[in-house]
Amino acid sequence: MIRFVVILCPLVLISCSNESVDATGPYFPKVKTIIQNNCITCHSANGTGEPKGLPVRLETDDEILSLAEAIKKATNDPVSPRNKRMPYGGELNAGDKEIILRWFESGGTAAN
Ligand code: HEC
Q1: Measured in angstroms, how far is the CA atom of residue 88 from the centroid of ligand 1?
Q2: Does residue 45 sit within a domain?
Q3: Is residue 28 part of a domain?
Q4: Which end of the chain is more exposed for a tag (fewer CB within 10 A), N or C?
C-alpha cells in the first residue's frame, strides 16, 4: 500500500502542474512570442542584451525552426557543461518551458 502511494503521488503532482498550463496548439506562435520576450535581446543582430550579437540568431521563423532542438534543450533539458540554461543567467517560467517542450515534441515545425 505504501509503495502504491509513493508511486502515485509524483504522478498526481505532474498532472496538476501540467493542467495549470494553458498550452493548446498550435504552439509555434506562442513559442515565437516567448523568444521575442526572452531571447532576442542577445540572439539578434542589434539587441540590447549582454552579451549581444551572438552567432546564434533567433530573429526569423527559419532561424527558430532550424534550432528547434537546441531551443528545447537550452530551456528544458538538464543543465550540463555542454547544455547551458537559457535565457542566459536565468530561467523561463514553467508555463513557457512547457509550451516549448510541447511544440518540440509535436514536431517542432511552423505547423505545430
Ligand atoms: C543575456 C543574453 C542571453 C539571452 C537573453 C539568451 N541567451 Fe542564449 N546564449 C547566450 C550566450 C552567451 C550563449 C553562448 C553560451 C556558451 O556557449 O557559453 C547562448 C547560447 C545559446 C544557444 C546555443 C547553445 C548550444 O547548443 O550551443 C541556444 C540554442 C540559445 N542560447 C537559446 C536561447 C533561448 C531559446 C533563449 C531564450 C529563452 C536565450 N538563448 C536567451 C546569451 C543569451
Answers
A1: 6
A2: yes
A3: yes
A4: N
Cβ(88) – ligand 1 distance below 6 Å: yes
Name the residue among 1, 7, 23, 8 with its Cα closest to residue 103. Answer: 23
pTM: 0.85
Residue 3's pLDDT is 61
Distance 70 CA to ligand 1 centre (A): 9
Q: Decide: 39 in ligand 1 pocket, CB within 6 A.
A: yes
The verdict on residue 1 lying in a domain is no
Which residue is closest in CA terms to ligand 1's atom 42?
A: 88
Residue located via cell numbers 504522478: 11
- Across 48-52, 87-91, 93-97, least confident range: 48-52
